[in-house]
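Everyone, carefully examine this protein record:
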Amino acid sequence: MGENYDYISDINARKLCWNFKVYVIRIWEHPSKFNEKEVGSIEMILQDSKGGRGHASISKSIVKKWSVDNKTIKKPTPYRWILTFSHRTEVNHIMNPTFPLDAFVFKTIPELLTAEKIENSELFDMIGEVVGKHDPRELVTSKGKETKRLVVVLQDLEKNRINCTLFGEIVDEILPHLEVRRLEPLII
């Protein structure tokens, strides 16, 4: 007899013990609000066999059990609940999962341009060729942090274009690729 697994869409506050079989789609470290050099939590996006996605969090008190190298996103899924790992949480690696990984949720440029509203919690993927850029700018956030901003123009295969604003470290990562003469297109 097989094990029974819960689905992310069924999460509610009436139950405390859950048994999920999921892929980790994305994982990143969120800095401490008191010291940006310290890890405050590890955040994850999980996908179950129905394709449902949920947010999971590992608090600072048990974060030493895990390590990743990415940064921050706020409320990355539309579900109301966030799964929080405790010291009793068990994670088992499954060698041959029985359901497909849907790592990407693509949106087209026309979908983005005609959308009435895109929720901050909505994670999606897009692919485009960089066909233009604006000059990078230095910014100071409302909290006084210095950062950078760069707007790039992306184009799809049907010649649809959209501006994409990049912030922070990603600006330093992409600028060298934009400043050299390239024979092949730059795809992001």
Observations:
- The CA atoms of residues 51 and 102 lie 7 Å apart.
- The radius of gyration is 20 Å.
- Confidence is low (pLDDT under 50) at residues 68-75.
